[in-house]
Amino acid sequence: MKTAKSVMLALQCKHTEVVDVKGPLLSYIRATYSDKEADDAAEDLTMIQQLRSEATSIVTGGTPGLKEAQAKYLRCLAAIETRFPISKDKGQAQVNFTWCDAFQPKKKATQANIHFEKAALMFNLGAVMSQIAIACDRSTGDGLKQACQLFQEGSGIYSLIRENECIKLDNPKPMDLTVEVITLLEKLMLTQAQECFYHKAVVDKKSASVVARLARQLAVMYSEVERLFTAPALQQHLDKSWLAHAQMKASIYDVETLIQVAKTYQGEEKINYEISVLQEAFKRVQATKKICKGISNQMYESVSKVQDSIQSSLTKAEKDNSSVYLQRVPPFMDLPSTAGALLVKLAIPSCLEPVVSEVLFASLIPDSSAKALSKYTEMVDSKSRSLMDKLATATDNARLKLKEVDLPDMLEALDNKTPLSLPEALRRELEEIESIGGLNHLKGILTEVGQLRESLERDMQQCSQELDNDAQQDAEARAKYGEAWRTPAAATMAKPYWDKVATFRSTLQRAGDSDQSVISRLKGQEEAFASLTISNALNKMPRLEAPMVNMGPEDPVVLVANLRRNLKTLETLAAERAGIEEAIKEMKQKDNVLPKLMATVPQSHEALFASEMKKYDGLEEDVNRNLEFQGKVLTEVEANAMAFQNIFDVNGWRKSCEGAAAGMRESSKTFRELLDHLSEGLRFYLGTSEVVRRCLQECQDFVFTRGVQRDEVKQDLERQKQQMESDQLARQLSTASLHPGAGVPAAYPPPPGLPPPLAPAAAPAYAQPSYPPPHNMTASSTHPSAQQYTSAPAAAPNQSSPTYSPPAQYQQQQHNQYAPQQQQYQGYAPPQLHSSGQSQPSPPYQQYAPPPPPQQLYGAPPPAPAQHQQYVPPPQQYQHPGAPTAPQYSAPPVAPQNQGYQPQQYPPQQPPPQNYGQYYGQQNGYGQPY
């Protein structure tokens, strides 16, 4: 899975069109030399034409041999450059190279310039190296080393393009080959090489301090890349996702630096420093999440995991500090800063170096001329580099000297407000407050806190409803079944959950009180927080003014005029140096000594070099004159600046500014305190939300389990009731059929319309009935149900039933033949139907064992129902069929009958508002979406 720290960028190659290189060069050789030289060079030109096709037809880094083909074609272009002048001028080889823009392929550019072809090929070679580096296995140390080397070589290639090729292109230059774009790509490749070093340190499990320094350097380098992306020309040409990528990288490695620094403090047992750093990291990761949200959900989720890790570490550290260390947490600004560690530098690929075995156009230029040309090129490079270094040093010296004397800010303070009037620490603080959004940032956090609180209220309300519903259903069951309902009471089983809900409500009430305190402070400081900007702070600073009475020899007006004139002179000298730099580059670009070398004998090459190098003497004199004049101006500026500070009492003005900034400091301090409180509240609500959601899930599981067990108990009680009724009916009918021909007892009168029963007579011959096979008979077929005994209409009073009953012996025989063999249920004592003096035959029906009692909540599952057993009446008195029998196990405690539903009591709470923003003072703008 890609994360914000693992994803890197690879460049796309430029596309080209088919270009005839062989034809124009062969024509030039024929026109300039002879047919023989043209025939000798034809084979080399054919090879170059084929090599260009191979190097430009496929532009994917995964193609084998593409990198080698591109490098070889670049070496061939170097040989062509030194032998054939290619341009649109008459008498030169006119080869038109066409290339598409790498970032906007619809744009094409065509130039008859060998440097345009070289720059495009080098661009593609750097892009291919970035693609190969991305494809490396960066989860291992070897893969990271390989990727790092490729990124360094890619950076070196773009450095060569910027220094040697960009300035030699024809105007208008393609946008993707301008100095700005090439510089950006050079910095990007070098930054990703540094990132490989960081990941290798993590893989090798280096110390937290080492990883922190590498992450800090990455944050600085990606910030520089982000700055280059923001150039107006690049913003319109490059995709916006590139800028978002650089912003995300700079932000995430800034946070990673703080995480590693916190780990360092943890190892040193500086718990207070660790807490301060983690608090700052938690604040900064919020900005990172906003950036990642606009890139992809995958990046957003990876940064969210980083935030959760920071929150977990911070919570643990604060808990340890509050319980063990008890150290004061210092402000983050008071902690020492972390310095970066740069471990990479650009590297020139070895594949671009000339190969001895590759000899092209040997008949056109002798080796002595080639060596002489190389020597002269080195002399020109050395001279131009020396002059450019002098100009750059002069520019740096002027900038540093003006910064020492606070110019031109000191002169601007006379006319209008300047940042110089702000104390440095306050200015940095205000810039940081403005960067995070100031007052709107606090309101945004407050809105998020309100939304989390509303979600908490809903979850706790749902918990209460679930428990109330369970208690209501339990009360209804107890009212219906009375003492037979032996499940534990809802008030007893749900007490832990009611306690949790009450604890959450109490905690939320205290958090609400804390929120109200923060809101009250925010309302009181809203105007002050809105003014925490650089512009408002400058308006409150005193102006630098000339003294009412001048006690010195210098006139303040004249002194100010001299300083302004000195600054103007320095600006003129800086512009002159810029012109000299352009002149040196242009002269170097146009310095083509090859035709003269080819026309000069080798013995005269040194004299030719000395003559050609004199062209640079005039530029060298201009450089020296500029540096000398600037030195005099800087000396005068230093003297005038010292006199200016004395006359205008700059030190007293700075003290006045310090006093005027006291109020802004207090407001900034209060802003930081409220920001810390709100960040703490946000972390509290995030953690509490997770706990309450787990409690809600537990309540729902509890209520669901109770409902399932309650339904099972109800079914058991209903079956027990039906069984008792069926057994009672069966016993009564069995008693009525004990004597053949006996009349139906009064409890079961004969059906109406039948004649009175006949007197007992001799039993007729009885034919044995036909029964189905025993394996098809079930307990229900041998045991008469209540439906069988109640389906026929009852007989009229004083009438006997005409139904004939078989002899009791035969009846018992048939019953024993088909009745299933069952085990006697332990502890069951059926009622005695007759007095002890009577002898009755076994009734032809079976008795069902009573169901076991219901199980307690969260206990073992109820046992399987007992098998039906043959009923044997014991010698005891008759009992009502509905009377319960004594079980052989300990029954659970039974709640009092008809006790009713009594919900758990907890302190009354204010109902959650429909709009949390109103609860937090929405009329004043709080709670609005940020």
Mean pLDDT: 77
Number of strands: 4
Classify the helix fraction into a percent range: 55-70%
Question: What low-confidence regions span 5 or more consecutive residues with pLDDT below 50?
Answer: 739-930
Cα-atom Rg, whole angstroms? Answer: 49 Å
Question: What is the secondary structure topology, with strand pairs?
Answer:
Layout: H1 22-32, H2 35-57, H3 66-81, E1 97-100, E2 108-111, H4 114-135, H5 141-165, H6 179-203, H7 208-229, H8 232-237, H9 240-267, H10 271-293, H11 297-325, H12 367-404, H13 409-415, H14 424-436, H15 439-481, H16 490-493, H17 495-524, H18 526-530, H19 534-540, H20 556-590, H21 594-598, H22 605-613, H23 617-647, H24 650-660, H25 662-736, H26 779-782, H27 786-790, H28 808-818, E3 846-847, E4 869-870, H29 916-919
Antiparallel strand pairs: 1-2, 3-4
Task: Briefly summarize what is shown.
With 930 residues, the protein is mostly helical. Among the domains are: 1-205 and 348-364, Serine Threonine Protein Phosphatase 5, Tetratricopeptide repeat; 365-404 and 546-647, alix/aip1 in complex with the ypdl late domain (Four Helix Bundle (Hemerythrin (Met), subunit A), Up-down Bundle), CATH 1.20.120.
Structural features, described:
The chain is mainly alpha-helical and 930 residues long. Among the domains are: 222 residues, Alpha Horseshoe (Serine Threonine Protein Phosphatase 5, Tetratricopeptide repeat), CATH 1.25.40; 142 residues, alix/aip1 in complex with the ypdl late domain (Four Helix Bundle (Hemerythrin (Met), subunit A), Up-down Bundle). It is 61% helix and 1% strand. The strands form two sheets. It has a two-stranded antiparallel sheet with strand order 1-2. Helix 1 runs antiparallel to helix 2, helix 6 packs antiparallel against helix 7 and helix 9 packs antiparallel against helix 10. The longest helix is centred in the last third of the chain and has 75 residues.
